[in-house]
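Inputs:
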Amino acid sequence: MLSGMKRLTVSLASGEYPVYIGKNLLERLPALLESRYEERRAVLATDSFLAPRAGKRLVAAFHSAGWNIRMAPPLPRGEAAKSFACVERLCGFMLKSGVERRTPLVTLGGGTVGDAAGFAAAVFQRGIPLVQVPTTLLAQVDSSVGGKTAVNHPLAKNAMGVFYQPRLVLCDVALLRSLPKRDFLSGMAEAIKYALVFDSAFARWLDRNWSKILRRDTSMLLRVVYTSLAWKARVVAEDEYDLIGRRELLNFGHTVGHALEATTKYRHFRHGEAVAWGMRVALALSEGRGWMSSIKERRLSTNLLNKLHPPVWPENVNFSRVIKYLRYDKKRRGARNIFVLLRALGRPARVTSVSLNELRRALTSIGLR
Ligand SMILES: NC(=O)c1ccc[n+]([C@@H]2O[C@H](COP(=O)([O-])OP(=O)(O)OC[C@H]3O[C@@H](n4cnc5c(N)ncnc54)[C@H](O)[C@@H]3O)[C@@H](O)[C@H]2O)c1
Ligand SMILES: [Zn+2]
């Protein structure tokens, strides 16, 4: 085992898979895969930013390990990758490249690449092995683990998708050096989510070490990614298919977050930025019910959310538009949206009884009219 490399296992009814977390791991991927794929063939999906950078390095590493790997034409950057058109193009490339049912598809990129290429891996010939190499903080702390894949519909984020678990996930925190600050903070929003929902000690640690985290010290990044993914792995193991309400807790901040993303056509906010606003709303809703009664915990939660600095919404976004998009939320039951609120720090509750008035008050509290 490499020094400094950590390993988590995601254990599911259908089997388990490893998650490797460390620094400068990218070039080790062929060695980690070797025992599983003796044919040494693979296909790589990435986006147009990463293709000439980490993409090129990864292809070179596979070639020097004697693999036949082909890089698919790059996906566009950002949410544009999460479309049927892109998935179809990727499948076309795989058909022409002679990809077979045992050939792994390696994804290299942020959550958008992972979600779209993961979806392609799930549907191509009814499923080929998927290997996730997340390159954004958001993908390393969240989206690469757990098997949710999806493409967007103009009316709703992630409207079409399937559960499809990867065979292996490799998080190289060295890749996070080049991430723009905006994307880094977007990923920190998801890390803060785990802290508020499950782990008050992690929340205090994040608060204490915030400036070192922003400097991207390796030891800090390793702890942020490891702690977050340990929670994700645990929750996914308990509720792989989002059926018993446990996995839904990971949706803290996402009900309003997804509506903000959809109403701005997925172009205005990074995912984590919209979730940052959504978490503020969730906190306001919790406080409105008399929950989160400890002043210390309220202050800590607010402090953490204040560090994220999400951009404000465009002028045409208002209360009624957000409400309209809430109607398309996947998590809706009947006429009710499901909100994850906090009884206290680290004590989440699923709530279906949020009234329009409560919601209006909470949205007003973040400045949405
Ligand atoms: N499947 C899940 O469980 C899950 C969970 C959370 C979020 N998501 C999805 O993830 C998506 C957001 O992912 P994201 O925030 O990673 O966005 P992203 O994939 O669009 O990446 C953000 C930007 O960073 C660039 N980039 C990627 N790696 C880089 C690097 N190392 N250095 C510099 N730039 C780099 C990309 O080219 C892109 O422009 C959303 O669509 C969201 O719905 C999925
Ligand atoms: Zn999210």
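The longest strand covers residues 15-22. Flag for discussion at group meeting.
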